[in-house]
């Protein structure tokens, strides 16, 4: 099988294609290792889907608007809670204990607030803020878990990064290659992004045109092929452009190889 990879940190696209051309796996992997939660508040006819800003014990999530509707049944954690987390002290501990009518240790107190109050959701770290060691660790774990059929992969295609303008992405490219080398998969090719749309007469002068054309081409290909069952997955995905890139890269390779 051929595994085609479009390099990214938050949006690393993989497309696994069998020898008969059928798609076996196709998805976007997030190497930032963060989860974005949606608000759980139920309105009259539907559930709110806004991004959550608060959580109660990591089980229920609420946006800024709907957390206020839950007061007083849900208590919002006071500023003293975050101050204690940031820099514990005896004075802060006593003050927060008094607010909750408790007399417990710092660890027990902060856990009590987290379990019973609405605390702020930790915001995801941007891809640029992550260190390369953490990215490498997440990459290894993520690919190992996802590629259960790794022994059936004989060719890996990786989008080639231009090191002068994308040094971090070039490092990720090297990490991906090394991952497969350590799995004894040595047929690894770095593919120029220019090749993806070479076979199609579509607008591709600018970055925006190439992205839009890629989505258009892939949608047409899926509608008229054995892979039509993947059309709904593609149409409903937020990162259609990255999905398209990994798929088109694989198709170009198959076409040129034959």
Automatic annotation (TrEMBL):
Keyword field contains Hydrolase: yes
Gene3D superfamilies given for it? Answer: Ribonuclease H-like superfamily/Ribonuclease H (3.30.420.10)
InterPro entries given for it? Answer: HJ-resolvase_A22 (IPR006932), RNaseH-like_sf (IPR012337), RNaseH_sf (IPR036397)
* Pfam families for the chain: Pox_A22
BP terms from Gene Ontology = DNA recombination; DNA repair
Give GO MF terms, alphabetically.
four-way junction DNA binding; hydrolase activity, acting on ester bonds; magnesium ion binding
Q: Could you tell me the keywords of this UniProt record?
A: Hydrolase
Protein name per its UniProtKB record:
Mitochondrial resolvase Ydc2 catalytic domain-containing protein
The record lists the organism as viral metagenome
């Amino acid at each position: 099988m051929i595994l085609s990879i479009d390099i990214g940190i938050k949006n690393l696209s993989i497309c696994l294609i069998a020898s008969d051309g059928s798609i076996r796996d196709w998805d976007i992997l997030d190497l930032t290792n963060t989860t974005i939660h949606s608000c759980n508040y139920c309105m009259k006819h539907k559930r709110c889907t806004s991004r959550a800003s608060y959580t109660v014990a990591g089980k229920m999530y609420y946006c800024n608007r709907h957390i206020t509707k839950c007061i007083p049944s849900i208590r919002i954690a006071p500023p003293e809670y975050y101050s204690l987390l940031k820099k514990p002290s005896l004075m802060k501990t006593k003050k927060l204990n008094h607010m909750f009518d408790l007399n417990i240790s710092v660890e027990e107190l902060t856990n009590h607030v987290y379990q019973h109050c609405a605390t702020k959701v930790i915001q995801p770290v941007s891809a640029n803020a992550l260190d390369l060691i953490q990215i490498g660790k997440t990459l290894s774990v993520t690919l190992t878990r996802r590629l259960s059929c790794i022994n059936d992969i004989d060719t890996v295609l990786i989008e080639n990064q231009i090191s002068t303008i994308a040094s971090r992405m070039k490092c990720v490219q090297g990490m991906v290659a090394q991952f497969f080398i350590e799995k004894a998969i040595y047929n690894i090719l770095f593919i120029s992004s220019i090749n993806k749309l070479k076979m199609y007469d579509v607008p591709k002068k600018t970055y925006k045109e190439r992205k839009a054309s890629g989505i258009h081409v892939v949608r047409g290909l899926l509608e008229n092929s054995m892979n039509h069952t993947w059309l709904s997955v593609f149409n409903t995905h937020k990162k259609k452009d990255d999905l398209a890139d990994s798929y088109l890269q694989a198709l170009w390779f198959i076409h040129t190889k034959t």
